[in-house]
Amino acid sequence: MMIPIHDALLQIFDVEHGACGLLTAPLVGGGFGRLMVDCGHNGSMPWYPGDHLKGLGISYIDLLAITNYDEDHVSGYPNMLARGINIGWMIRNKSVSPQTIKLLKTEDGMGKGIDALVGSLDNFGPPAVGAMSPQFAGVHLEWFNNSYPAFDDENNLSTLLHLDIQGVQFIFPGDLEMAGWKHLLNTNARLRQLIGSTDVLIAAHHGRENGICEDIFDVWGCKPKIVIISDDYKQYDTQNTIGYYNSKCVGITPFRGKLDKRKVLTTRQDGELRFCFQNGACTVS
């Protein structure tokens, strides 16, 4: 189904215990471009990112951001390759080489998504001289990551992506845990500045307790309107964080026609979430 884009559209898909989002926005110079944040899939529906894009007649993604080198963030990547989805640019933690990813995955094994990603990374080397990364009108993006081997676990090597879309500030932190959060904040004045103006925080590590860093709220002033948890049914006791995040949010109303203030949205309960930008306003549905 084609959804009206207007000035920009950000979708956060229901990919169970995983992550996948898609921003569609005008490109500087004309036309629309697309930024995909992770590329997980939903095996129950089923839903795959490549099938979704092809169904819309899309065969090119201007930019793919990989926030974490775990399977649930890239499980749909083989489907994108199989469906002929071409990718122009990639954001990832470049301190982690393909060989190092294989080393990090030795204990748990390489899933099909990670294996396909590792096989593709050599295609995303240094850009050609004079090449310009895609420029989205009304969108500014910045990213931060800890470096290997200072950290040697996939979660704390996550890439934190900050998106400013028409003045609304989003943070996608991958699967950062407390140690990774604290190091990024202590070493990046710019990130500390951005944290305080966050409107929408995607909960790190799919809302599990080890993704919480109290400092972002209590020290650095993060007070988002909403927190989004991208996850399926509760598999672990450590997923019981909705009450904590509720205490840190301002909340929004209405949401899908209901006037009850919502502070935490979850893909497990709310399904796909859409942020529609039109005439300087952002609505969530």
Please, could you describe this protein's structure?
The protein has helices at 49-55, 71-74, 77-82, 98-104, 112-120, 178-187, 189-195, 214-218, 242-246, 267-270; strands at 8-12, 20-26, 32-39, 60-65, 86-91, 139-145, 159-165, 168-172, 200-202, 226-229, 264-266, 273-278, 281-284. It is α/β, with parallel strands linked by helices and 285 residues long. The radius of gyration is 18 Å and the shape is globular. The protein starts with 7 loop residues before the first strand and ends with a strand. The model has no long low-confidence stretch (mean pLDDT 94).
Question: For the largest beta sheet, what order do the strands appear in spatially?
Answer: 5-4-3-2-1-12-13
User: N- to C-terminal separation?
Assistant: 15 Å
Mean pLDDT: 94
- Structural class call reads alpha/beta
Number of DSSP helices? Answer: 10
Unreliable sequence segments: none
Order of helices and strands: EEEHEHHEHHEEEHHEHEHEHEE
* Estimated helix fraction: 10-25%
Radius of gyration: 18 Å
Main sheet specs: 7 strands, mixed
Give the strand tally: 13
Task: Give the overall shape.
Answer: globular
Q: What percent strand? A: 15-25%
